[in-house]
Specification:
Layout: H1 22-27, H2 34-59, E1 90-91, E2 94-95, H3 100-106, E3 111-114, E4 120-126, E5 129-135, E6 144-153, H4 158-169, E7 174-179, E8 185-194, E9 197-206, E10 215-224
Antiparallel strand pairs: 1-2, 3-4, 4-5, 5-6, 6-10, 7-8, 8-9, 9-10
Amino acid sequence: MATGPIPPAPRRDAEDDSEPDEDFAAAVPHRMTLGMRLMYIVLLLVVAGMVGYLVLVILFPEQFASRSWIGAKGPKQTAAGDAKIDKGFELGGVWLGITPDQARVVYPTIRFEPSADGGRAGVFPHHDGEYQVWFHGPDRGERAHRIRSQHAYAEASYVELLSELAGKYGKPRASACTAEEGVIGIQCSLQWELSDVALDALIRTAAPPGGGNARTTLTVTATDLRPDAAFAAPVPAKQ
């Protein structure tokens, strides 16, 4: 029986290869639709850009300073440049070391309630936000030892807030930014240790699940690090 030449096997074009590239499959999470993959990649790029900008803001706060959104001030200084022991770090018009009576003069509508440590906590509005201040008990002079501000912004971005915080307080001793799972959002935490003050800031930007404009919130907490002696009850003046 005559046999002819064996036809060559069909040529396989590299462009027709339907098997996924192993490196690409390892880089992109499994079981994602094309839209989800694109969103994942965009989110990674946003986080990378945000981290890069955070570095610039921290290293060069003067060049990247923005308009004022926070409404907070630093420690009151004497002519010699030293912070006064009775008028420390200021946030929202009140300062660490202030008494409840002094706070009521600044904010007549301040609301007081007992706190767990035997002192009092006051709440008042300021600069389109809400402020809380915690006071020691009578045995420690009823002085404020912690102040916290909370704001929500429809216009300011986390980048602007990072810029302003770095411009006001300098390079933080610790900082971290992460992308939140389940929503399109960024969360950044920063910490400073200024003169006798521990300062913590938390910035969170998130878009509504159904779409719409992103909303940014900022929480700043100042905690007095001065010793108990700084909060001793005032000594009555001699007559």
